Structures are given as C-alpha cells and as structure tokens.
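Incident log, entry 3
Record: HTH cro/C1-type domain-containing protein (98 residues)
Problem: checksum mismatch between cached and fresh output.
Input:
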Amino acid sequence: MADLPTAPVAESTHPATGAQFRHVRGPLMEFGEELRRLRQSKGMSLASLGAAVYFTKGYLSKVENGRARPNPALAALCDRALGADGALTALLERTRTG
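Fresh output:
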C-alpha cells in the first residue's frame, strides 16, 4: 500500500489559556500568515486594518488564523491598505486553483 501524502502540521499555544494544539497548515493558513506579516510590518492593529478595509477585527483574526475563508474583495482591499501590490490577491487565487 502506498503512503498517503501528509500535510504540514503547525503547533500553537492559545494566548489566553496556554493550551497546546496542532493544526494542519494549508492554503488558508498561508494566506492568513501573509496577511498578518504584512499587517504587522506596517505597524497596524487588527482594529485599524479592519477600519481601513470595512471588515471586523474578529473576522480578520479568523482569516489570519486560518479559521475563516478570505474572499477576493478582502484580498484586494488589504492589498490596497497594506501596499502589497496585489500579493494577497495573487496568493488567494493560488489557494483557489491549486
């Protein structure tokens, strides 16, 4: 029997409780991690990015943590707000096609 491919696994610690958990790292996590990296590189909080792109900080947090699916409108607005030159839109498109 052939071995099944395995997805990368990430380990995290919940910031409030300290609980350890593992999750599969997939395309949604990749988008969220890049969104967080760009946001933090601009010194923006979730609240300030949310105000700039008209999405709630709660939704943005879920996207950054791979628990909510981003959409093309969010990617385009975040590209504009973060000066990402279409990087998030391109990344989202890659997650949808492959």
